[in-house]
């Protein structure tokens, strides 16, 4: 159960004042929180586990990403709860409590950046930092009905951030307001303010939408109508992502199994990609933390304990193939990045959609989200009034 105060979002509260300035800064007057894997000078970075906190000293410097936000005028008010060692997507923590989802109080908040997402959704801060290795910003943003952004890999410094699996680790951030989401991104990525550029096409991955229990029209119609209103309907194209991966990522075939071969909707290739990603993530987690886990034998929550020990016992078999899969996929999809946009409620639960753009197009995507967001919310409101 989450702590009653502050929706259980915070590990600890403190105040880091923004850098003094004689002129208005881009984030002046805004508050933020950071996931408990970012170093803050003088505080122990707890990594979601009390045994980790007990066996590690206080940080002697602050992560550059946090410093850049302070220099831009924002005030940090504390560290947020996270899943243990960032190795879950649920948002639960047996030691510190599970942050309470303000949008759906009887449901989990999603993880591993659960506390950061909840702090934003509960309006305790204006924005918050998380990290995203396999959806740990995008998933809790969706669960909590807010905006979440995962930038291009390696674009924002992860110095002073405890790694999970470096091939996939990326920092990320949450906001309720697309304007703030954009401003934070431009500070973190050191992007200039430029006029928005219209997209040349928007591709709908039809096979991925078929996996959802929510009617696909409920997910895509607000986007279609907003794009049509802003840019014209000819931009929207349809594709089968599974077929594209089969053609462009030949190394994934080594991860095909009878189980994945039985899958429908051409998702067999995506299931195989997931297997390759999971293996490489386990291997890199073991390299980063296997010795500590084996030596300390930390107290870990149920389910998570088995997952972490399975990673510690993994071997380097097929790791070279995993790297080939990753290289081919990046070349094929140009290292996609993503942002989660809330689409209102369905059966009284939050719904979201992810937009992706090619590597390095972060500024373009932030501007696009800001342009689309208001129109999408209007279309969602119309759909909800009609009972969709």
In short:
With 388 residues, this protein is of the alpha/beta class. The protein is 38% helix and 15% strand.
Give a structural overview.
- Helix content is 38%, strand content 15%.
- The chain has 13 helices and ten strands.
- It has 388 residues and is α/β, with parallel strands linked by helices.
- The strands form two sheets. Strands 1-3-2-4-6-5-9-10 form an eight-stranded mixed β-sheet, sandwiched between helices. It has a two-stranded parallel sheet with strand order 7-8.
- The relative contact order is 0.13.
- The model has no long low-confidence stretch (mean pLDDT 90).
- The longest helix has 29 residues, at 268-296.
- One of its GO terms (molecular function) is hydrolase activity, acting on carbon-nitrogen (but not peptide) bonds, in linear amides.
- This is Amidase domain-containing protein.
- InterPro entries: Amidase_CS, Amidase_dom, AS_sf.
- Residues 22-177 form the Amidase domain.
- It comes from Quercus rubra.
Percent of sequence in beta strands: 15-25%
- The percentage helix is 25-40%
Major sheet strand order: 1-3-2-4-6-5-9-10
Q: What is the count of DSSP helices, taking H or I runs of 4+ residues?
A: 13
Q: Name the structural class.
A: alpha/beta
Helix and strand sequence: EEHHEHEHEEHEHHEHHHHHEEH
Total strands: the figure is 10
The outline comes out as globular
